Amino acid sequence: MIVVVVYICRLFSIQVIDQTYRESARTNALYNKTLFPLRGIIYDRNNNIVVGNQPYYDVTVIMRNIEEDLDTLELCRHLDITREYFETRIKDIKNSKKNPGYSPYTEQVFMSQLSIEEISTFRENLYRFKGFGIENRTQRQYHYNVGAHLLGDLGEVSKSEMDKDDFYDRGDYIGKQGVEKYYENYLRGEKGVAVMLKDAYGRIQGSYMNGEYDVAPVAGKNLTLSVDIALQQLGERLMQGKIGSIVAIEPSTGEILCMVSAPTFSPTELVGRHRSENYQQLSNHKSKPLLNRTIMGTYPPGSTFKTAQALTFLEEGIVDSRTSYPCSNGFVYGRLKVGCHAHSSPISLAPAIATSCNSYFCWGYFRMIGDEKYGSVQQAMTVWKDYMVDMGFGYTLGVDIPGEKRGMIPNAQYYDKLYNKSWNGLTIISNSIGQGEVTLTPLQIANLGATIANRGYYITPHVVKQIEGAEIDSVYTNRHYVSVSKENYELVVEGMRQAVIDGTCTSAASENYIVCGKTGTAQNNGKDHSVFMGFAPMDNPQIAIAVYVENGGFGATYGVPIGALMMEQYLTGTLSEESEKKVEYFANRVIDYGEQTR
Predict the structure, then answer these.
(1) Cα–Cα distance measured from residue 36 to residue 502, given in angstroms and rounded to the nearest whole number
(2) Could you tell me the domains of the chain?
(3) pTM of the full predicted structure?
(4) What is the pLDDT of residue 3?
């Protein structure tokens, strides 16, 4: 009798009280079909659509519904695939290890990301291939064939990415690089769901309750970039046939106006079903076109770094505007000589910047590292290093693009270990002219230009200006003030202005606005790198720019003229007829990098 009562109570619990079994039964009868949202649109600073969406198509298959007499060769012909591909794909779909949860009764993806052109003939003949279907989705559409590195791309989500975020399921797409990755959570939107009724075999019968429980997807948020797409186009054109980068910043806001890494590639190459194949080819190319040199390339800054040294020496009282040092075709101390080109001697600060005198900055650095007021060479080095870090060197700036490198600013501990604590200012004298162990990214060099243009502050550089319905991170609106007085910045600005009037940057001069600049010729194992850093207009700066051309020789050879053309385009909105000829000239100039690009 007791047993009967127990059974009755258990049945009552299962049928009336416990909802678990009801939910299980309902799950077996219903199928939640994911509805994918439209990804957010990306605009440039002038509201031009840079990245939108376009439809693409997945070919699906329900294995149980394939007829025995399927004309496989005809299907392959309409999909432009081989018989071998067809057979391999069918095996992979049926493989439970490669395709967990496989069922012959449910829809499986046979091919993905086909364009409307690729699917057209198959769609017209779909009635001939029972068991196969077509599902609509969207993929990225690029309105301009530039900006691949900063925009980034989408790729199929990995297992580790799914483990980190349960938003994603197998077969979903996620931002892999650039803006697409950094702002993924804004761009991706929210998935919807269509509740479908299925029979005991898992076959879809139609919508459940006429869609009463469906949830519509929510489109991703649109982004407005700070980038000027016309400036980006010009920069990529000028850097054809070269390795290097161009970065331009609006000094007052930290907004990045262009970010050119060369060599580059078409963003369309990483869209569609050939993405993996194209990515592999780009990855294997010796010129490393996938490398975003603007934030990942670490280079000796050369003489552009002298401006940072001048600011440090001034603030520490090592020099003032009247301090002069000799230059006997270079810095000479005992047997040590750092060469320099011919100019007047002795020379003071502003002319030293204008003529890019190596000797002046070697003397200043030597005096600072050996100055008795610091107590030791290690402490002097620490003071110097702290100034460099304060100016944005040695650590990542925090740009809103993944992959930024920090560059190298050596410290006392580094040299103690390297030289067994036996070193002085002469040992590391190359640091003073942007050589030695010092390396910066092009973004850091451009940010130095923006800081000088602002006379002592910078805002963390960023490429996104606005997020629909949200605020950008406050780090991209707050000013970082450098521990150097505005008066000392004015002295460096004076030197950079003289460089354009009658120094190393004369080809950057313009009749329409006042340009300040600084060249760099960075020594290299092979031919020197050509570097330019500048800004304009002098008293109302709207653009700061860094140009870095690997193996380009003197700064005035490539860096200055390319920088000048970029500033003209941005500040006037057009190029003169003479400048258009210069653009054509530089666009067609190819630097031979030998095996590096083969």
Answers:
(1) 60
(2) 31-48+144-225 (3.90.1310.10), 56-140 (3.30.1390.30), 229-265+291-597 (3.40.710.10)
(3) 0.90
(4) 41
